[in-house]
Amino acid sequence: MQIGIDKLGLFTPNTYLDLVMLANARGVDPDKFTIGIGQDQMAIAPLSQDSVTMGANAALDLLEGESRDNISLLILGTESGIDQSKAGAIYIQRLLGLSNARTFEIKEACYGATAGLMTAYDYVAAHPDQKALVIGSDIARYGLETPGEVTQGAGAVAMLVSAQPRLMVLEPETSIHSADIQDFWRPNYSKEAFARGKYSTEQYIEFFQKTWADYRAKTGRTIADFKALAFHLPYTKMGLKALRTILDEGSETQQAQLLERYAESTLYSRQIGNIYTGALYLGFLSLLEHSTNLEAGDRIGLFSYGSGAVSEFFTGILQPGFEKQLAKQKHADLLANRRQLTMVEYETQFQTELPEDGSEYEIDLTMDNAPIILKGVKDHERIYMTR
């Protein structure tokens, strides 16, 4: 039985910051942002969007025209959780009308959505007549005028996992490497993450090399067996650094092809920024919706990395007619219709927060046109609304 990704959905807030503007405001050469780390814009989430609403909106993107009766598993991968006890997935379940779904949230930094995808694979294998919905939804925050400010972002990717998928069949062979390291973390008392940037990059590359070597040893496959490699992208130059460590295993033609496919995989990330658990799948979606050289039967490699750290290299085979499962124009419109913030608007929006004492608060919704939004807080409860 073949199991894999049947459809992909995408959501990002409708406001963004231009990184040349940010560079000028911070007294930095814009090339350091646009060329050095490979980012052009970053999505900025208003108060009315959080990991719940973005995840639900991304799922709406792929559920259009789909029966929801046989979606019996819903998993949210996030490191932007809204509650220490109740899973954000429970809110999403109600907002989407999936009342018969086993529902929970997974946390392991940026690896959370991949953990959800692998769990969904096993679930569908045991229940082939059922489908699973896996969501990676996050807001990346590092603080104003911090080294990580330029690698912020917000968004969500949703995946429908099924037997006989129409987009990509996941192959069973995967390679995993994990270790207890302190490259990135966010204690309960902090709203922003702590990161050892250079160390994290070194670990990311090392973890990729280990999983790639293990995968090759297990399967006997080489770089020649892949049409493209997609990477977790906290910023777009990160994956390129890892890819370059194995390029010499292929011919010059193969190297050029992989680099071209890699560039295609970064286009959405350059406009949205880091979305943590969804970042790998944002790159994968960008690859599928921008490449004109992919065909049914092509093997795609995917490298997932979650700080702390867990990594996994896995693969999939594109299916006949996979293009029909994509929504390129819809996603292009989503990005094109966003509003660019000024620096004052960005900093004000970044610093505006919900009350921490649970008191009543109503959010101004005039600037948010998303179908599902956070309306406010009342009696310590978040009030979500579907328009």
Number of helices: 12
The CATH architecture category of the largest domain equals: 3-Layer(aba) Sandwich
CATH fold category name of the largest domain? Peroxisomal Thiolase, Chain A, domain 1
Q: Unreliable segments (pLDDT under 50, ≥5 consecutive)?
A: none
Q: What spatial form do the alpha-carbon principal axes imply? A: globular
List the helices and strands and how they pair.
Elements: E1 3-11, E2 15-18, H1 19-26, H2 30-36, E3 41-43, H3 51-63, E4 71-77, H4 88-96, E5 102-106, H5 112-126, E6 131-140, E7 153-163, E8 168-170, E9 175-178, E10 184-185, E11 194-195, H6 197-219, E12 228-231, H7 236-244, H8 252-265, H9 267-272, H10 279-290, E13 299-306, E14 310-318, H11 328-336, E15 339-340, H12 343-351, E16 361-362, E17 372-378, E18 381-386
Parallel strand pairs: 2-15, 4-5, 4-6, 12-13
Antiparallel strand pairs: 1-7, 1-8, 2-3, 6-7, 8-14, 9-14, 10-11, 13-14, 16-17, 17-18
Helix pairs in contact: 1-2, 3-4, 6-7, 8-10
Domain Hydroxymethylglutaryl-coenzyme A synthase C-terminal: 259-350
EC number: 2.3.3.10
Binding site for (3S)-3-hydroxy-3-methylglutaryl-CoA: 29, 142, 241, 274
Task: Describe the protein's architecture and organization.
The chain is α+β, with helices and mostly antiparallel strands. It folds into 2 domains: 3-166 and 326-386, Peroxisomal Thiolase, Chain A, domain 1; 170-320, Peroxisomal Thiolase, Chain A, domain 1, CATH 3.40.47. The protein has 12 helices and 18 strands. α1 packs across α2 (30-36), α3 (51-63) packs parallel to α4 (88-96) and α8 (252-265) crosses α10. The chain is globular, with a radius of gyration of 20 Å.
